[in-house]
Amino acid sequence: MKVLITGTSRGIGKAIAELFLQQGHTVIGIDRQQPTVVSPAYTHYVCDVRDQKNLPEIRDVAILINNAGTQNEDDIDINLKALIHITEKYAFQPQIKSVLNIGSASGHTGAEFPEYCASKGGVMAYTKNAALRLAQYGATCNSLDPGGVLTPLNACVMENPVLWEQIMAETPLKKWAIAEEIAQWAYFLTVTNTFCTGQNIVVDGGESINYHFVWKE
After folding, report:
1. Which residues, other chains included, contact 8 with Cβ-Cβ below 8 Å and sequence gap of 6+?
2. I need a labelling partner for 101 at 20 to 30 A (CA). Which of 66, 145, 166, 185 fits?
3. CATH for 2-206?
4. Residue 216, pLDDT score
5. Residue 196 contacts by C-beta under 8 Å, 6 or more apart in sequence?
């Protein structure tokens, strides 16, 4: 299938692209950075997802994965507004099978920077809106909302022993996901899954269910 993924030069997006390529799909990446994925079946466009006028013309996308995102850098414009435009441009056509938006557990809990949480909360709502409209094509649309993932974006806390200890105290499984693990979820929700739609799937090691209940022993 023809798979379009945004934000493929590193982290979760790169892992997703590589998994789809391994499974024999044709992958197209959009990223403002130069390509790091190497495969004859991979095409890369250097473009900022906010740049509506210069987005490439790509027809008959079967799977769209909106992964491109940022933190504390025009979060609402990049994480939400650009995601909406990308989806409206590429997804609403007869060949579409599935759309997946990479959100965040912070969109559920609000436990992060204000604009970041707002942008990811917007992704959750837009996912449901898009799912209703994509159903006419028999296509699914969900958001995959990770908690902590071991990517370069999170290096500032991963490399700080004090902060890392505090983070692990908040995470019942005492670990973060690796990008390849999130990629497996992305593959399942877009290729294997044909019935779950309009849902916001949290994958966070249990962090969002930790309510610090304290009581007398």
Report:
1. 14, 16, 17, 27, 29, 30, 31, 35, 36, 37, 44, 67
2. 166
3. 3.40.50.720
4. 61
5. 140, 142, 189
